[in-house]
Amino acid sequence: MTDLPIRDELRGVEPYGAPQLDVPVCLNVNENPFPPSEQLVADAARAVAHTVRGLNRYPDREATTLRERLAGYLDRESGVALRTEQVWAANGSNEIMLQILQAFGGPGRTALSFAPTYSMYPEYARDTSTRWVVGRRDDDFSIDAETALKAVAEHQPSVILIASPNNPTGTAVPLDTVTALHEATDGMVVVDEAYTEFRRDGVPSALTLLADHPRLIVARTMSKAFAFAGARVGYAAASEQVIDVLRVVRLPYHLSAVTQAVAVVALEHAAELQARVAQLREERDALAAWLRGIGLEVADSDANFVLFGRFADRHAVWRSLLDHGVLIRETGPDGWLRVSVGTPEETTAFREALVEVLKEHT
Ligand code: PMP
């Protein structure tokens, strides 16, 4: 490896990713624990069979039907009516955000975010040769608007990336912080709403700001609320001009015909999936209350996971939970651990294991 003429910044770097272990209870990557319904499976299988008959041809490069259905979903979910031309789709919101940095970042340009946050952001920056800068979040993981504006003035970023709700903390960012950042910069403001369907009542989506914020991009995904992580479908909503720029950097035919077909089917089943989302939100609140009840600190969460702590040796707690068959994530600031909300059975298994583990570690 070291003999290869690789870029200096990639030398010795390990590929990113949480461990994929075969464990009875997997609560480590914020997946939706509920598999698609049999009805969705049957409808998707029919759509795939139809699509496979045409796989000698390239897919619709513009993914027009899918983007039209995504726009319809956003209207139903957030009450924001967008034209198909204002929506873009790609292989997960990871690819969406890489395309954003390909288009708006690059050598001599800076991307800014606020830590702790999603650990892929610096990788998009590295891979597009964009300078990466992080400001700090407050102790409660919120972003202080004044601190954020100072960071913008200091670093003059071309792209500001804000996850709301944030991973790994679950923190939602108030919309007035987003508007203040948009006003303070000439760059793009990306609100990554991967977990937004799990937000608590009264927290509006940044989609509501699109009409009068031309440099705002809202990134979303079907991986979480839609329980569709394996299909790899992410999408963005923005002005038509912004989407046109993303269309310049995308690879031709980047989204396979099979992906487009199954995503359209999943969107037809959105109502069934939303009932599961409501259940997961309740489970999340119950889990946070339970963790607080046993004396732990818990970050307020608008997502489908909870960050909790603090532990003098979080690795030891993580390891012991794994020994009890429960895989969670060792991430975020030192002392904290993150657990995804699972099925009621999985959450019970986690709680029982944690009680045992805490006995061992106190
Ligand atoms: N944004 C955030 C904040 C995430 O946590 C994740 C996945 N863990 C993603 C984006 C990427 O999701 P996907 O590529 O599956 O859409």
TrEMBL record:
Residue list for modification N6-(pyridoxal phosphate)lysine: 224
Domain Aminotransferase class I/classII large: 27-353
Reaction(s) the record says it catalyses: L-histidinol phosphate + 2-oxoglutarate = 3-(imidazol-4-yl)-2-oxopropyl phosphate + L-glutamate
InterPro entries: Aminotrans_II_pyridoxalP_BS, Aminotransferase_I/II_large, HisP_aminotrans, PyrdxlP-dep_Trfase, PyrdxlP-dep_Trfase_major, PyrdxlP-dep_Trfase_small
Enzyme class: transferase
Family: Belongs to the class-II pyridoxal-phosphate-dependent aminotransferase family. Histidinol-phosphate aminotransferase subfamily.
Subunit organization: Homodimer.
Name under which the protein is recorded: Histidinol-phosphate aminotransferase
UniProt lineage: Bacteria, Bacillati, Actinomycetota, Actinomycetes, Jiangellales
